[in-house]
Every structure is written in C-alpha cells, then in structure tokens.
Amino acid sequence: MKQIRVTVWNEYIHEKEMPEVAAIYPDGIHGAIAAFINKEEDLRAGTATLEMLEHGLSQEVLDNTDVLVWWGHCAHDRVADEVVERVHRRVLEGMGLIVLHSGHASKIFHKVCGTCTLNLKWRESGDKEILWCVNPGHPIMEGLGDHIVLEHEETYGEHFEIPQPDELVFIGWFQGGEVFRSGCCFHRGRGKVFYFQPGHETLPTYHHPDIQKVLVNAVRWAAPVNGPKQEYGHYPNPVI
Questions:
Q1: Cys staple from 222: which of 83, 114, 145, 192, with CB 3.0 to 4.6 Å?
Q2: What residues form DSSP beta bridges with 5?
C-alpha cells in the first residue's frame, strides 16, 4: 500500500504561551492532528513549525509531502515570503493544501486565492456551531452524517471575502445567527486546496471524532493524482 505523505504545519506559539491551550493540546495542535492522521494505515504524517529552520518547509521536505496541513493565527507576517513561494509552487505541481481556521489570513492562502484581503466577521463567543453538509456526494463526506455539532467554537460570519469556491462542502450555522462557508474546495494548477473553518486554539475541536474524519478524508481527497504531465508554450508538432 502506497502511503500518502502528510506534513502538518503549525505556528506553535499559543501552546507555549497560553496554559489553557497547552492543556488541550500538550503536544501542540500539529501534534494532535498528526497523531490521529497516523492512525490511518494509508497515511503517514510528520510535523513542522514556525521556529524551525526554513519553518520546517525546506524544498526537500516539500518534495516529500503529498498534502500539507496549515494552522496559523498570530504570526502570519513572520512566515518568510520565499517559503510561501516554495509552498505555492508545490501546490501548482500537485501537492494538496489544507488550510485550517485562522489560516484564512495566512500568506499562502492569500497566494492561492489570488487576493491580499480575505476579510470576514468573527467573535470569540464559544457559541454552538452546526456544520451542515451541502455536498453529500463529495469524497470529504465519506462516512459522515449530514451535519456535525460543535458545542463551542469561535464564531465566523459572512461575508467571507474569498473567490467563489469550486466546490462547497459545509456551511456553518452559529448560535448567534451567523452563517459561514466553512468547507471550501479550490483547484490550483494540479493541486487541490481545502479550507476548513473550525479549530479555535482554546477549544478541543481537533479531538472531535467527526472533525478528525473530515480532515482524514480531506487528506485523501487532496492527495496528488498521477496524471499526465502537462506541456505549455509553443508546440511545434501537431497532435494528430
């Protein structure tokens, strides 16, 4: 069985500075996500963090990554532009990218979306969220019901200033009345991108079995396909 190689990237700042976050994720958010991914026989996950050399995302690491999972919040500006460019090239080449929660404001998500602003409404309310499936035939929905209930989550609200998703998988409804496009798929070059909204650092969202199932399914969906190599530019000989 060929394994899908996953790298889980995290700033790893809140867990070291906020005891309440460390209590929920003692091995970091990246460690928690990698742990449940590694329970799957066809997946193999490693981790990388902001403070590592080249943020842990050297060309060698990326060349050996099929799907990159990205969690960021308070240090988007500290991610080196050359690393963002390197990740972006790999996405165009076919590497999958899964962007989580406040990663919507990351440089790499801006890059793949082609915009410098990705505004939304938000508040740290801890209200209930219900993630409603709006695309039941999508591979990310394998083995899941038609909705996921999170008793507490940070509220996000529309308008979410993103390009029109190629596929919408989830719409989130919040107790305060807000709605949000919470699971969005994009295709960029040969690569597939999934943005998934839940995951506030002070809440145990990534311990929820259905959230784990979504992310495992998303990794499988986003993994590269061994399709034909594309040629561009001047093509001197006719096809037929």
A1: 192
A2: 44
Cis status of the peptide bond prior to 159, with omega within 30 of 0: yes
Burial bucket for residue 134 (CB in 10 Å: 0-12, 13-18, 19+):
middle
Residue pointed to by tokens 């989580």: 100
The single residue listed with the structure tokens 């990326």 is 62
Q: Do strands 191-196 and 96-100 pair parallel, antiparallel, or not at all (unpaired)?
A: parallel
The predicted-structure confidence for 170-219, as pLDDT tens digits, reads as follows 999 999 999 999 999 999 999 999 999 999 999 999 999 999 999 999 99
Q: What type of residue sits at position 215?
A: L
**Strand 167-174 vs strand 179-188: parallel, antiparallel, or unpaired?**
antiparallel
Q: In this structure, what token pair is assigned to residue 21?
A: 């976050």
Question: What does the pLDDT look like over 82-119, one tens digit per residue?
Answer: 999 999 999 999 999 999 999 999 999 999 998 877 78
* 54: its two tokens: 């080249």
Q: Are 129 and 198 in contact (CB under 8 A)?
A: yes
